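Async update (no meeting this week)

Hi team, since we skipped the sync, here's where things stand on the single-chain job. The sequence we agreed to prioritize is pasted below, unchanged from the tracker. I ran it this morning and attached the output directly underneath so nobody has to dig for it. Comments welcome in thread, and please keep replies under the output.
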Amino acid sequence: MKPVLVTGASGFVGWHVARLLVERGQPVRALARPSSLIPELEVERVHGDLRDRASLDRAAAGCGVVFHVAADYRLWSKNPDDVYRSNVEGTRNMLEAAKAAGVERVVYTSTVGCIGVPPGGTGDEEQPVSLDEMSGAYKRSKFLAERVALEFAAAGLPVVIVNPTAPMGDHDFKPTPTGQIVVDFLNGAMPAFIDTGLNVVNVRDVAMGHLLACERGRAGERYILGSENMTLRQILGELAGITGRKAPSVELPYAVAYAAGVITTAMARVTGRPPKAPLDAVRMAKKKMWVSHAKAARELGYAPRAAHTALEDAVRWFERANRSQAA
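Output:
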């Protein structure tokens, strides 16, 4: 049986994709930097970097399938060019390596940020969207990387694209920006909120969606992997119900949040430390990223659980992680 290459297996979504493959008895080769950890999983580690094409050739050699999950997922970077090099050029390098290795299938992990959402409406894979609508280096780089994936698909490489929404759940190591919402709530570090909305999904369902896209997806097509559209107020209310803690009741005007983003981001440029409220994140929050996963349900058989399970899994995992660190 040929190994399956998973990039980003040391990260949140990539770890869950690798876990699911291992549970199915599939040999997994995980691309990782020497310093990266891939806890709890029996995988073949190969050292490499998305910006190093030769390392990707070595990683892809002999593999039947590639899940390209790795990305530089930062909403602020002192050097934004680093984000583009990893996400855009890194994707091109990985797809070129996959093509040279003759792999049978590539699943590329994009983001819901590349999906068009009409004002006050619900977005899907067919909604028009442009680069000008992308805020910040992360979203712009992922949009350009998705164009690279579509370019390779049009040229004959069997690439399927998945667009996860806002995954939450266990094993959010860093944590991700969405996981940070749960961490801040647990730490009492969220005294107020703004009027925004996310599509929340259990990360385990996102991982299953990757495998379904590999098995049933059409090359060159995009599939949203999401679950429920929720306002931030609703998310905090769910977290309050799960934990028994009080949800913040103060809603900040967007102008106040924007001003905080401007100030903290300016300070970050001086200190080099990530801002508490990155301006790009505040700009993203102005739009409710509400989407439909109907296409994935129809074509892939994708059937996600309720968003409540994602929030509950995240709370329990972060609580255990905090206890472990305190011990």
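Quick observations from my side:
Residues 320 and 326 are 10 Å apart (CA to CA).
The first strand starts at residue 4 and ends at 7.
Reply here if anything looks off.
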